[in-house]
Write a structure and sequence with these properties.
Its EC number is 3.4.19.9. It comes from Tetradesmus obliquus. Belongs to the peptidase C26 family. This is folate gamma-glutamyl hydrolase. By secondary structure, this protein is α/β, with parallel strands linked by helices. It has one domain: Rossmann fold (3-Layer(aba) Sandwich), CATH 3.40.50. 40% of the residues lie in helices and 17% in strands. The chain is built from 15 helices and 14 strands. The strands form 3 sheets. It has an 8-stranded mixed beta sheet with strand order 4-1-5-6-12-11-10-8, with helices on both faces. The protein has a 4-stranded antiparallel beta sheet with strand order 2-3-14-13. β11 and β12 form a beta hairpin. The chain is globular, with a radius of gyration of 22 Å. Bound molecules: 2-acetamido-2-deoxy-beta-D-glucopyranose. The site of 2-acetamido-2-deoxy-beta-D-glucopyranose (NAG) has 7 residues, from loops.
Length: 374
């Protein structure tokens, strides 16, 4: 491209940009660190974004995927924004999102946890990226909730039979701390009374049919799980067998809870006994504070503000899936974000872009700005 064409392009873009929005895009640097170097507690980023993996199945229609809005509200309440990661994304899309997010949340649900199933394979790839990033000194936190803990257990142990069936549905439980809990960065970051409340009251909302028995964790065949994760707490299934309710990686900022910290403040289905006491809701907030604080130690960022806004959850609207007139599983979630299959997703996005941005030139301008900064 000749210089004159470039100048023309820039002028046209600037004009169009002015007309379209009247605003300037913040630079990539402005999206990232708000302080120079490491701030208090190693924070390098006061605008953290959490990536949350979508999953197929109820309440999403066939071919679609979902995130229960409670997970999104949970991290938002602690000062983070959310980017959904569709379980059926390509490798390139996953890498682009990974380079933009500051932490990963693997939520609960009922997806198939076997290699060859897209949800599992995508989760495994994201965990691989997270471990590799941390190995390179790129601090990147991961938290798994319920199915998220189960997914992490299979990925790390490499054993698809590590889960046991158990009866712990609708079973808020106290946490039985292990010796290792004393030296846990996660538990030590929580206010001490939260740790005590989790022990003395049934604040941890357990709601699962599978889990990792302590006996499975101790089996020599599952050595890889034990080498990677330490167990911070156990809880008891209805038949009295102890299973892992909280764990934390030995060398990585990776935590997992079989219980649901997000439900206490944000889910209201009356067929479940979700704890809603002030102590229960305070716990929800403090666990979110911990996870989001971890994400503030990561400086991944989108290439520019437009790319970031294209990915953010604000492009979608939640549905009221918990309405009493609805039936089945979907009622478990008060609000749910539903994501279309890849084709549908693109169509939706193109439409949205036409409405919201309207201008091809704006995109070119953003590219030009990014090129100038590089
Ligand atoms: C997987 O875990 C189960 C449950 O602990 C155990 O019985 C089995 O031996 C393990 N399988 C392999 C291949 O390691």
């Amino acid at each position: 491209m000749t210089l004159s064409r470039l100048v023309l392009l820039a002028l046209a873009a600037a004009l169009c940009f002015q007309l379209a929005t009247g605003v300037r895009l913040p630079s990539a640097a402005a999206l990232r660190a708000s302080s120079n170097g490491k701030g208090k507690d190693g924070y390098v980023n006061e605008r953290p974004i959490i990536g949350i993996l979508t999953q197929p199945g109820d309440p999403a229609p066939k071919g679609y995927s979902y995130i229960a809005a409670s997970y999104i509200k949970w991290v938002e309440a602690a000062g983070a924004r959310v980017i959904p990661i569709m379980y059926d994304m390509t490798e390139q899309e996953l890498q682009d999102r990974f380079a933009t997010i500051n932490g990963l949340l693997l939520p609960g649900g009922g997806a198939d946890l076997r290699p060859g199933h897209m949800f599992y394979d995508t989760a495994a790839r994201l965990v691989e990226l997270a471990v590799a990033a941390n190995d390179k000194g790129d601090y990147f936190p991961v938290h798994g909730t319920c199915l998220g803990l189960e997914t992490l257990s299979i990925i790390i142990s490499g054993n698809t039979s590590i889960l046991s069936e158990m009866d712990a549905e609708d079973a808020p439980a106290p946490l039985l701390y292990t010796q290792e809990a004393q030296h846990s960065p996660f538990l030590n970051a929580l206010p001490p009374h939260i740790v005590t409340n989790l022990q003395n009251q049934a604040l941890a909302m357990e709601n699962h049919m599978h889990g990792v028995l302590m006996t499975s964790y101790e089996e020599p065949a599952n050595r890889r799980l034990k080498d990677f994760f330490k167990v911070l707490s156990l809880s008891l299934a209805r038949d009295g067998l102890p299973y892992i309710s909280t764990m934390e990686a030995r060398k990585y900022p990776i935590t997992a809870t079989q219980w649901h910290p997000e439900k206490n403040a944000f889910e209201w289905v009356t067929s479940l006994h979700i704890p809603h006491s002030p102590d229960a809701v305070e716990m929800t907030q403090e666990v979110a504070n911990f996870f989001v604080s971890e994400a503030r130690k990561n400086s991944h960022a989108a290439r520019d503000a437009l790319e970031e806004s294209d990915m953010l959850i604000y492009n979608w609207k939640p549905e009221y899936t918990g309405r009493v007139t609805r039936g089945g599983e979907e009622q478990d979630f008060e609000q749910t974000y539903i994501f279309g299959p890849p084709d549908n997703r693109l169509a939706g996005r193109k439409q949205q872009q036409q409405q919201q941005e309207g201008c091809w030139w704006r995109r070119q301008m953003a590219k030009l700005l990014a090129a100038l900064q590089a």
